[in-house]
Amino acid sequence: MTAQGYVEHRERVLPEWVDAAGELAPAYAVVIFDHAIDRLYDGIGLGDDYRQATDFSTFTLETHSLLERPVPASEEVLVRSHILAVDAKRMHIAQEMFRPGETRRSALMEQLSIHIDLSIRRSAPFPPERLARVRAAMDAQSAWPRPRGTGLRITLAE
């Protein structure tokens, strides 16, 4: 975690991650968000070390993406991960992608994840000390505004 309360991840868009228009393809935006969520989990004590030591992990239940501005090949992006809510087993996380130095967002990924006991492949409550760490991280982010566009659903306007 940073002093500002969020985890940042920087990554360069690889040439093989762009579409025919020369812009970051949606599938690879998800890859970058996935790398960023790994950094968040490491920062709050739910990463690979936790999984290996405890046989517990998190699974993604649902995602929603907004691709708002193009990102060209070889461009570096910055992803900020925000924990929006947590309960005994689940976390609601929003991740915003920016081109460094820009304030207009390029993309948003929102996800609902659940804590899992890998030995039985079923959901399980967070251990109290891990839940406390997640809540502390969320509290550290409380000064940040809720990312615009979270909680939307896909629909055709009638």
Short description:
The protein is built from three helices and six strands.
Q: Mind explaining what this structure looks like?
A:
- This protein has helices spanning 26-43, 48-54, 128-140, and strands spanning 7-12, 56-67, 76-86, 90-98, 105-117, 122-123.
- The protein has a single domain (7-140), classed as Thiol Ester Dehydrase, Chain A.
- Strands 1, 2, 3, 4, 5 and 6 form a six-stranded antiparallel beta sheet that branches.
- It is of the alpha+beta class and 158 residues long.
Structural features:
158 residues, 3 helices, Thiol Ester Dehydrase, Chain A, alpha+beta, six-stranded antiparallel sheet, globular
- What is the N-to-C order of secondary-structure elements (H for helix, E for strand)? EHHEEEEEH
Low-confidence stretches: none
In DSSP terms (H or I, runs of 4 or more residues), the helix count works out at 3
User: Span from first to last CA?
Assistant: 43 Å
CATH fold-level topology:
Thiol Ester Dehydrase, Chain A
> What is the CATH first-level class name?
Alpha Beta
Q: What is the domain tally?
A: 1
Oligomer: single chain
User: Based on the structure given, which CATH architecture is correct?
Assistant: Roll
Strand content: 25-35%
Provide the helix percentage: 10-25%
What is the alpha-carbon Rg in Å? Answer: 16 Å
Mean pLDDT: 92
Main sheet characteristics: 6 strands, antiparallel
Structural class: alpha+beta
Choose one word for the global shape. globular
Going by CATH, the homologous superfamily would be: Hotdog Thioesterase
Total strands: 6
